Amino acid sequence: MSLKRLLVALLGVSLLYVGAARAELDENYSVILMTENFPPYNMATNDKNYAREENLKGIAVEVVREMFKRAGINYHMTLRFPWARIYKLALEKPNHGVFVAARLPEREKLFKWVGPIGPDDWVMLAKADSPITINSLEQAKQYRIGAYKGDAIAEHLLAQGLEPLTSFRDQENARKLQEGKIDLWATGDPAGRYLAKQEGVTGLKTVLRFETAELFLALNPETPDEVVQKLQQELDKMRQEGFVDKVLNSYL
User: Fold this and answer.
1) Cross-referenced Gene3D superfamilies, in alphabetical order (predicted)?
2) N or C: which end of the chain has fewer CB within 10 A?
3) What is the tens place of the pLDDT at every residue in 149-202?
4) Rounded CA separation 171/109 (Å)
Protein backbone atom coordinates (compact mmCIF):
# COMPACT_ATOMS: atom_id res chain seq x y z
CA MET A 1 0.00 0.00 0.00
CA SER A 2 1.30 3.43 -0.91
CA LEU A 3 1.93 6.03 1.79
CA LYS A 4 -0.91 8.16 0.44
CA ARG A 5 -3.43 5.29 0.64
CA LEU A 6 -2.20 4.39 4.13
CA LEU A 7 -2.78 7.96 5.35
CA VAL A 8 -6.27 8.03 3.82
CA ALA A 9 -7.11 4.72 5.51
CA LEU A 10 -5.84 5.92 8.88
CA LEU A 11 -7.83 9.13 8.53
CA GLY A 12 -10.96 7.15 7.82
CA VAL A 13 -10.47 5.02 10.92
CA SER A 14 -9.86 8.16 13.02
CA LEU A 15 -13.07 9.72 11.76
CA LEU A 16 -14.98 6.57 12.66
CA TYR A 17 -13.67 6.78 16.24
CA VAL A 18 -14.52 10.46 16.49
CA GLY A 19 -17.99 9.78 15.12
CA ALA A 20 -18.49 6.96 17.60
CA ALA A 21 -17.41 9.20 20.49
CA ARG A 22 -19.74 11.92 19.31
CA ALA A 23 -22.63 9.50 18.98
CA GLU A 24 -21.92 8.21 22.51
CA LEU A 25 -22.16 11.76 23.86
CA ASP A 26 -25.43 12.36 22.01
CA GLU A 27 -26.95 9.13 23.31
CA ASN A 28 -25.76 9.00 26.91
CA TYR A 29 -24.88 12.52 27.95
CA SER A 30 -27.52 14.30 30.03
CA VAL A 31 -27.66 17.64 31.83
CA ILE A 32 -29.42 18.21 35.15
CA LEU A 33 -31.15 21.57 34.73
CA MET A 34 -32.36 23.40 37.82
CA THR A 35 -34.42 26.52 38.11
CA GLU A 36 -36.52 28.44 40.62
CA ASN A 37 -39.83 30.26 40.74
CA PHE A 38 -38.89 33.47 38.93
CA PRO A 39 -41.94 34.53 36.90
CA PRO A 40 -42.35 35.19 34.08
CA TYR A 41 -39.13 33.37 33.19
CA ASN A 42 -39.50 30.17 35.25
CA MET A 43 -42.42 28.93 37.34
CA ALA A 44 -44.27 25.82 38.47
CA THR A 45 -47.67 25.25 36.91
CA ASN A 46 -49.10 24.66 40.42
CA ASP A 47 -47.28 27.66 41.98
CA LYS A 48 -45.35 25.35 44.32
CA ASN A 49 -41.63 25.50 45.08
CA TYR A 50 -41.00 22.06 43.62
CA ALA A 51 -41.88 20.80 40.16
CA ARG A 52 -40.39 18.60 37.45
CA GLU A 53 -40.34 18.36 33.66
CA GLU A 54 -43.78 19.13 32.14
CA ASN A 55 -44.97 20.84 35.33
CA LEU A 56 -42.80 23.89 34.58
CA LYS A 57 -43.63 26.87 32.42
CA GLY A 58 -42.29 30.34 31.61
CA ILE A 59 -40.25 32.20 29.03
CA ALA A 60 -36.92 30.60 29.90
CA VAL A 61 -38.41 27.15 30.40
CA GLU A 62 -39.85 27.16 26.87
CA VAL A 63 -36.66 28.54 25.33
CA VAL A 64 -34.35 26.11 27.15
CA ARG A 65 -36.55 23.12 26.32
CA GLU A 66 -36.54 23.97 22.62
CA MET A 67 -32.81 24.67 22.67
CA PHE A 68 -31.97 21.23 24.12
CA LYS A 69 -34.46 19.51 21.82
CA ARG A 70 -32.89 21.05 18.71
CA ALA A 71 -29.36 20.32 19.94
CA GLY A 72 -30.28 16.68 20.56
CA ILE A 73 -28.95 16.78 24.13
CA ASN A 74 -30.75 14.91 26.90
CA TYR A 75 -31.76 16.77 30.05
CA HIS A 76 -33.83 16.60 33.22
CA MET A 77 -35.48 19.80 34.43
CA THR A 78 -36.40 20.50 38.05
CA LEU A 79 -37.68 23.57 39.88
CA ARG A 80 -36.46 23.81 43.46
CA PHE A 81 -36.12 26.26 46.33
CA PRO A 82 -34.16 28.23 47.42
CA TRP A 83 -32.02 29.81 44.68
CA ALA A 84 -28.85 29.75 46.77
CA ARG A 85 -29.04 25.94 46.97
CA ILE A 86 -29.48 25.23 43.25
CA TYR A 87 -26.87 27.84 42.35
CA LYS A 88 -24.36 26.02 44.60
CA LEU A 89 -25.24 22.65 43.04
CA ALA A 90 -24.63 23.97 39.53
CA LEU A 91 -21.36 25.48 40.67
CA GLU A 92 -20.05 22.28 42.25
CA LYS A 93 -21.55 19.31 40.37
CA PRO A 94 -20.56 18.25 36.83
CA ASN A 95 -23.37 17.98 34.26
CA HIS A 96 -25.49 20.45 36.22
CA GLY A 97 -26.81 23.82 35.11
CA VAL A 98 -29.01 26.56 36.52
CA PHE A 99 -31.24 29.12 34.81
CA VAL A 100 -31.89 31.94 34.52
CA ALA A 101 -28.76 33.56 35.95
CA ALA A 102 -27.38 37.07 35.46
CA ARG A 103 -24.00 36.97 33.74
CA LEU A 104 -21.94 39.22 35.98
CA PRO A 105 -18.17 39.91 35.87
CA GLU A 106 -17.67 38.20 39.23
CA ARG A 107 -19.48 35.10 37.95
CA GLU A 108 -17.90 34.96 34.49
CA LYS A 109 -15.26 32.30 35.19
CA LEU A 110 -17.45 30.24 37.52
CA PHE A 111 -19.65 28.80 34.75
CA LYS A 112 -19.92 28.17 31.04
CA TRP A 113 -22.67 30.34 29.61
CA VAL A 114 -25.41 29.96 27.01
CA GLY A 115 -27.54 32.96 26.13
CA PRO A 116 -28.78 35.54 26.48
CA ILE A 117 -32.26 34.16 27.04
CA GLY A 118 -33.87 37.46 28.06
CA PRO A 119 -33.35 40.87 29.64
CA ASP A 120 -33.46 41.78 33.31
CA ASP A 121 -33.11 45.44 34.21
CA TRP A 122 -32.49 46.22 37.87
CA VAL A 123 -34.76 48.83 39.41
CA MET A 124 -35.90 50.37 42.66
CA LEU A 125 -39.68 50.31 42.94
CA ALA A 126 -41.77 52.41 45.32
CA LYS A 127 -45.46 52.79 46.07
CA ALA A 128 -47.34 55.08 43.70
CA ASP A 129 -47.76 57.77 46.36
CA SER A 130 -44.17 57.59 47.63
CA PRO A 131 -42.35 60.96 47.74
CA ILE A 132 -38.94 59.28 47.33
CA THR A 133 -36.75 60.69 44.57
CA ILE A 134 -33.25 59.29 44.06
CA ASN A 135 -30.64 59.39 41.31
CA SER A 136 -28.12 56.85 42.60
CA LEU A 137 -27.62 53.87 44.89
CA GLU A 138 -25.71 56.16 47.22
CA GLN A 139 -28.87 58.19 47.75
CA ALA A 140 -30.83 54.97 48.34
CA LYS A 141 -28.75 54.08 51.40
CA GLN A 142 -30.95 56.19 53.67
CA TYR A 143 -34.01 54.00 52.93
CA ARG A 144 -35.14 50.51 53.89
CA ILE A 145 -34.60 48.38 50.80
CA GLY A 146 -36.11 44.95 50.23
CA ALA A 147 -34.37 42.36 48.03
CA TYR A 148 -34.40 38.63 47.24
CA LYS A 149 -31.95 36.61 49.37
CA GLY A 150 -29.05 35.17 47.36
CA ASP A 151 -30.07 36.93 44.15
CA ALA A 152 -27.59 38.84 41.99
CA ILE A 153 -29.35 42.12 42.79
CA ALA A 154 -28.98 41.60 46.54
CA GLU A 155 -25.32 40.65 46.05
CA HIS A 156 -24.74 43.79 43.99
CA LEU A 157 -26.30 46.02 46.65
CA LEU A 158 -24.13 44.46 49.35
CA ALA A 159 -21.03 45.04 47.20
CA GLN A 160 -22.03 48.71 46.88
CA GLY A 161 -22.24 49.13 50.64
CA LEU A 162 -26.02 48.86 51.03
CA GLU A 163 -27.70 46.58 53.54
CA PRO A 164 -30.90 45.23 51.97
CA LEU A 165 -33.54 43.46 54.02
CA THR A 166 -33.78 40.14 52.21
CA SER A 167 -36.69 37.74 51.78
CA PHE A 168 -36.70 34.08 50.73
CA ARG A 169 -39.30 34.83 48.03
CA ASP A 170 -39.10 38.02 45.98
CA GLN A 171 -42.89 38.45 45.88
CA GLU A 172 -42.83 38.92 49.66
CA ASN A 173 -41.20 42.28 49.00
CA ALA A 174 -44.23 43.46 47.06
CA ARG A 175 -46.40 42.97 50.14
CA LYS A 176 -43.75 44.51 52.43
CA LEU A 177 -43.66 47.57 50.19
CA GLN A 178 -47.44 47.84 50.19
CA GLU A 179 -47.58 47.47 53.99
CA GLY A 180 -44.85 50.07 54.58
CA LYS A 181 -42.32 47.58 55.98
CA ILE A 182 -39.78 48.69 53.36
CA ASP A 183 -39.42 51.96 51.44
CA LEU A 184 -37.97 50.57 48.21
CA TRP A 185 -37.92 47.22 46.47
CA ALA A 186 -34.80 46.30 44.50
CA THR A 187 -35.92 43.83 41.86
CA GLY A 188 -35.85 42.96 38.20
CA ASP A 189 -37.97 44.50 35.50
CA PRO A 190 -40.27 43.05 34.18
CA ALA A 191 -40.11 40.25 36.77
CA GLY A 192 -40.90 42.51 39.75
CA ARG A 193 -44.03 43.98 38.23
CA TYR A 194 -45.22 40.52 37.21
CA LEU A 195 -44.74 39.23 40.76
CA ALA A 196 -46.43 42.27 42.29
CA LYS A 197 -49.45 41.82 40.02
CA GLN A 198 -49.73 38.18 41.10
CA GLU A 199 -49.83 39.40 44.72
CA GLY A 200 -52.55 41.94 43.92
CA VAL A 201 -50.14 44.88 44.21
CA THR A 202 -50.36 47.40 41.38
CA GLY A 203 -49.43 51.02 40.72
CA LEU A 204 -45.78 50.71 41.72
CA LYS A 205 -43.41 53.24 40.21
CA THR A 206 -39.76 53.05 39.20
CA VAL A 207 -37.67 55.59 41.11
CA LEU A 208 -34.27 54.32 39.92
CA ARG A 209 -33.02 52.09 37.12
CA PHE A 210 -29.50 51.24 38.25
CA GLU A 211 -28.33 48.29 36.15
CA THR A 212 -29.11 46.37 33.01
CA ALA A 213 -28.42 42.64 32.97
CA GLU A 214 -29.12 39.76 30.64
CA LEU A 215 -30.17 36.32 31.77
CA PHE A 216 -28.38 33.11 30.77
CA LEU A 217 -28.18 29.38 31.28
CA ALA A 218 -25.18 28.82 33.57
CA LEU A 219 -23.51 25.43 33.14
CA ASN A 220 -20.99 23.78 35.43
CA PRO A 221 -17.44 24.62 34.23
CA GLU A 222 -16.74 20.93 33.49
CA THR A 223 -19.47 20.87 30.83
CA PRO A 224 -17.93 19.78 27.49
CA ASP A 225 -17.33 22.68 25.11
CA GLU A 226 -19.13 20.72 22.39
CA VAL A 227 -22.32 20.79 24.45
CA VAL A 228 -22.04 24.52 25.12
CA GLN A 229 -21.39 25.27 21.45
CA LYS A 230 -24.31 23.15 20.24
CA LEU A 231 -26.72 24.84 22.63
CA GLN A 232 -25.48 28.32 21.74
CA GLN A 233 -25.77 27.63 18.02
CA GLU A 234 -29.36 26.46 18.37
CA LEU A 235 -30.30 29.42 20.56
CA ASP A 236 -28.82 31.81 18.00
CA LYS A 237 -30.91 30.15 15.28
CA MET A 238 -34.03 30.35 17.43
CA ARG A 239 -33.48 34.06 17.96
CA GLN A 240 -32.96 34.67 14.23
CA GLU A 241 -36.16 32.78 13.45
CA GLY A 242 -38.13 34.95 15.91
CA PHE A 243 -38.85 32.04 18.26
CA VAL A 244 -37.41 33.77 21.34
CA ASP A 245 -39.31 37.04 20.74
CA LYS A 246 -42.53 35.10 20.17
CA VAL A 247 -42.18 33.35 23.53
CA LEU A 248 -41.30 36.61 25.32
CA ASN A 249 -44.32 38.40 23.89
CA SER A 250 -46.65 35.53 24.82
CA TYR A 251 -45.91 36.13 28.53
CA LEU A 252 -45.46 39.90 28.63
Assistant:
1) Periplasmic binding protein-like II
2) N
3) 988 899 999 999 999 999 999 999 999 999 999 999 999 988 898 889 889 998
4) 30
